[in-house]
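Record type: monomer structure entry
Structure origin: computed from sequence
Chain ID: A
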Amino acid sequence: MKRSEARKKAADLVGRMTVQEAASQLIFNAPAIERLDVPAYNWWNEALHGVARAGTATVFPQAIAMAATFDEDLVEKEAEVCAVEGRAKYNASKADGDTDIYKGLTFWSPNINIFRDPRWGRGHETLGEDPYLTSRLGVRFVKGLQGDGPVMKAAACAKHFAVHSGPESMRHSFNAMASEKDLAETYLPAFKALVDAKVEAVMGAYNRTNGEPCCASNYLIKDTLRGKWGFEGHYVSDCWAIRDFHENHKVTSRPEESAALALNAGCDLNCGCTYEFVMKAYEEGLVSEEVIRESAIRLFTTRYMLGIMDSSDYDSIPVTVIESPEHLEVALRAARESCVLLKNNGLLPLSESKIKTLAVIGPNADSRIALKGNYYGTSSRHVTVLQGIQSELEGKARVMFSEGCDLCRDRVENLAQPNDRISEAVAMAKASDAVVLVVGLDETLEGEEGDEGNSYKSGDKNDLLLPQCQRILVDRVLEVGKPTVIVLLAGSSVDLGSAADKACAVLLGWYPGAMGGKAIAEILFGKVSPSGKLPVTFYHQSDLYLMPDFTDYSMRGRTYRYFRSRPLYPFGYGLTYSKIRICGASFERTEGGFEVRVRAENPGKTLTGDVVQIYAQNEGSNNAPDNPRLVAFRRIELDPGQIAELTLKVSDENLMVVNERGESVKEGRVVLYAGTCQPDAYSLELSGTDVIRMEVN
């Protein structure tokens, strides 16, 4: 249904409501209006990496892991699965009269905030640190979730608008100060891209930006979102964010004022309870009937576009599609493509014929929690790393397992002495031919402030190190001297210290989803080549002292575009079992930009996926980022000996730089680089590859 038609129907319906009835529809758990045949509807649903918190669903790798695939088609396919399974759940719930939370078709995903600081606990919910990568993957997520039919499959929501990335402990009162340059260059581009892609909803952040609460910001909502960008969908507050106006930000003194401030700025829907005071605000003259009705019209426009108020072809989607073999295969493919091989001295892939006994050690080896990240659904089957390895080696070799230590406490058993599982782990390492050491974090150590799913309510990380108990375990196991691969399950930058130097290989598995253990085992034993790339910079622990304070939202010194020192592992980096070589590159001027033609070759003996990456630098420009920036990418897969030619488009817009007034300008001599990593010396050294440099003007 076209928006104009849906809005016409919505306006007619809202016009038949009383002001009080219209106001009642502006809260996330909107009640039924029986006299108008308006059903109750709960707007709150999540689909960050699969339909979340609503029972059984296909659980994909966490969002940051999906970003590591650099695979636009796969991200769109993931979102399509979310939409189909979400429809199936909605249909079943509706048939049973169930309109509870997490049962609707309005998904508050994706999270397209920029992962600017490695300490941010929610960073693994994002698509990384780069505005361009975030934009491209976010757009395809919206396309997959919403579809292109006459009725939307589901409604996507771009969050959290805007300039939001910690600290979690301060988010309810924090004022994020951002320059016009940083806004235009870093914090807003992904939101603009998703608005251009017709995302149906935008969610405001908890914090203030440059003094204004994000859920009542004239600059963000009126001037930018609805003004410059022409956004026509609805705006929703983060949950209980409007209550923060009077309780924490102190920009109002009572709920009536907070409700009026948000509503007058254009925040249509309240996740929370402050809009229960809308009618009092109306009676006091703080908000007009016209404003109330306009927000209700926007919300019912969405409901009509989803077919909620009428019917659609999606009404017959059955629950049998949930966790179907086809959907599970997409999740497995995503897990395979997301793993990033950070180091390999030749140990990987492991040889099944040479290993008679393998020790699998570590607190994340058999952990289901570490598979999931946060905002997850319930999988009917989980394959941990241990289980994946056991399946690969069944009938071929002995697999021994030791938890080794707790995830973060100094002992596993409460009555035991500290480090109570170390001796077991050491003994098993000594008895083995090789060791797989599975360590890292989970959502209890990096997550959302106050999230009930985060048992420690830890939110942000204090540092980039493994918990001390894990550092002790790793050191003791490596001292044994057996060939060892470290598998790191985490959602952000972790500095393994000297352990990374001592280990033969390091594989980053992220939070790989319910099928993650199978994918990781396939990679370890060479059934699949690793092919993921880092969507964030991995820093040394000492780099934190070089970066601006966590509360400083200036981009100087942050992310690969502005970090001037040598990182632990660079953005865009990731090894494979066969080095894809860029053996030719050229460019041609087209309308609106350039076409870059790249010739890629797989000289190895392994079927390998990789990512062709195009970076740009404006040499001589005072306004350009310190380092070349990503302007195009394409995931490829090549058979041994295969040569492929592909064309990537680079827009003129992405070759401009942003000045201090936030204006995009043509400046400097534009240079393009084509390769499978960043064009800096350290990336080339680590990856053992080359890039091709092209001057375009």
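Annotation 1: The chain has 21 helices and 23 strands.
Annotation 2: The longest strand covers residues 608-619.
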